[in-house]
Amino acid sequence: MAQPADYEDAHLRHWEDAEYLRSDSRLANADHLYGFSAECGLKAIMKGLGMTVDRHGRPTDRTHRVHIDRLWDVFHAFATGRPGARYSRQLPSGRPFGNWAASDRYANRGYAVNTNVDQHRDAARRIRGVVDGARQDGTL
After folding, report:
1. How far apart are CA 140 and CA 124, in angstroms?
2. What is the pLDDT of residue 108?
3. In which residue ranges of the chain is pLDDT below 50?
4. Which of 27, 20, 33 is nearest to 123 (CA)?
5. Rounded Cα gap, residues 101 and 55, in angstroms
6. Which of 58, 90, 120, 134 has its CB surrounded by the most CB atoms within 10 Å?
7. For residue 136, with 0-12 CB atoms within 10 Å meaning exposed, 13-18 middle and 19 or more buried, which class applies?
């Protein structure tokens, strides 16, 4: 039986594991986990801002059931016109996960180049700061 989603905890857990793998030069898996950390962080904020979820914690709106490469734009649209717009403004500009894909878990480990990993890590780190702020201001 699947465990209920805990986006905030998953966000931190994926970050910690990504950092561990990066320190061991295991960049492909680190890169993948930076993406999942970022995704879970944004979903935690969305849930705190009113995103509805089912009894398992999955978003009820199918447009919210996407990975970070697509969630980036979904998050910005979701936050617009809500108190969460302040969170959206704290994120890096552009689409830092536009070159990340969940299906890369099947790719050869050589796909992860330092520039992609650094870009994804920097964006995930910024999301960590936004999540921390959301926790401090009571959104989470």
Report:
1. 18
2. 86
3. none
4. 33
5. 27
6. 120
7. exposed
